[in-house]
Amino acid sequence: MAILLILSGNVTAMFWFSFGGQLAFLVGWPMVLVPVAYMVVGAALIGGLIMRIASKEGLSLPLLSRGLGFGVKGSAVASIVYGVNYIFYFIFEGSIVSHALTEFAGIPVDSMEATLIFAGIALVALYFSWRGMHSMNILQRFGMPIFLILFVIGMFMLANGYVLTGPGEWHAGPVSETALLQALGLMNGQIVFQGLTATDYGRFVKTSVRYRGTALLMFVELLMIAVVMLAGAFISFTMLPAFAGRANPELAAIDPGLYFALFMGLLGVIFTVITQVRINVINLYSGSLAFSNAADALGRRKIGRQWWMVGLIAVGVVLYPINILQYTETFLALTGIMTNAWIVILLADYLVCRKLLRLAPSANIEYEEGKVRSWNPAGLVAMSIGIIVGGAGIFGAYPLYLASVVTMAVCPLIYIPIMAATKGRFYRKPLEQLSIPEHAEEVLTR
User: Fold this and answer.
1) Which of 112, 119, 187, 272 has the greatest number of beta carbons closer than 10 A?
2) Distances (CA, A) of 155 to 163, 212, 257, 418
3) Which pLDDT tens digit goes with each residue over 42-54?
4) What are 73-102's pLDDT values in tens digits?
């Protein structure tokens, strides 16, 4: 229950409001339930599986990646992939806050003033993230009650000021097979990423909790996310007529920063700022930690986590003017390709190479620097090819919505045969390279 309470903080991210609206505009009602159910079931299964492995071993995913396919330095590549996801979500959530403030103040969202507002909000998140877990604990403790109270007030204000649009009126025109596949493709990256974020905390689950328990933990969190997504679809369709005069009404109607500021006024701005600064503190902290871990593994000179946060903010300020909300599909495809490549290799190693082929022990997975290779070429080759093949979909070689699925299929097909052909040789350092205490040399030789 303690871990579930922590994970529930993810539910308050306004990304879910926006994502729910985007899916509903794409496929309408009731087809929007298909991708939502796909995410709930898929992420519960994958997240429950990864969480159980992490809790049994007592290791974080970067440490697990050392033994499960990548090596000590190779796992840094996985950490970079993880960090890239948080860059996207940091810019996304920060843009929502900036849009709320600019809408209320009557400032164009693509102006220099809006960029400066984004930078100011980012500095607030930096202040809390710089202080570490103490500040995050305070924000988590009070964030959820504030979110729930202001959201309920907002729904009353929406009902009093606008004509509500129920699910029966969520029309997206003739829903084609392509539109449905596109909606499912948007979900592929989320299925894996939600499992990753849950594992950050889920590795502390008691070892007595089995796969069923970790999957149930994921399932409950994902059900709450599904409710927020459907609420987002409801608000987007209700507010769509109010944005009829905009250049892109549907883009405006899936932007929580715009519509909360519109129908809640100043209270909507406060609602957006308080809840999304809290989420962005987590994005900034987790992203900087991922890049810091990668740098520590790859370089000799260590760069503190705080300075990585400054770098992430700088990237966010540079990319803010493009309005990342309009490129959600592309960014989710890109991050989905990279994240899915990493995790399917990890699972292929654990479930097939270790459990089925018995190329290495499936318990007490080795991760120490003196015993594991710096680079596992099998994992890096499989990941590189998977990302290249998946990236071809982003550049139009085949439909974008298939990119992450193709990546998930290609990576194990490359990784497993390499590990089987080499009989697990890449798991461990060669005997002559092992770090062996001097007093053990005679015994080992004998």
Assistant:
1) 272
2) 12, 36, 15, 55
3) 989 988 888 888 8
4) 888 888 888 888 888 888 888 889 899 999
Rounded-to-integer distance, Cα 246 and Cα 237, Å: 15
pLDDT tens, residue by residue, 308-345:
888 889 998 888 888 888 888 888 888 888 888 998 99
Element (H, E) at 248: none
**For residue 5, is pLDDT > 50?**
yes
288 and 217 Cβ atoms separated by less than 8 Å: no
Quote the CA–CA distance of 78 and 339 in Å, as a whole number. 8
Phi, psi of 428 (to 5 degrees): -120, 160
Per residue in 239-286, pLDDT (tens digit) is 999 998 888 899 999 999 999 999 999 999 999 988 888 888 888 888
Q: In whole angstroms, what is the distance from residue 89 CA to residue 94 CA?
A: 8
- The pair phi, psi for residue 247, each rounded to 5°, is -65, -35
d(C-alpha 354, C-alpha 349), whole Å: 6
Averaged pLDDT for residues 347-356: 92
The structure tokens 């299925």 sit at: 191
| pLDDT for residue 432 | 47
ω into residue 377 within 30 of 0, thus cis? no
Query: What φ, ψ does residue 396 adopt, rounded to 5°?
Result: 95, 5
Question: Measured between alpha carbons, how far is residue 109 from residues 80, 123, 239, 253 in Å?
Answer: 30, 19, 18, 14
Cα–Cα nearest to 51, from 222, 224, 194: 194
Where helices occur in 162-265 by DSSP H, the ranges are: 177-202, 211-239, 249-253, 256-264
Give the three-class secondary structure for 422: coil
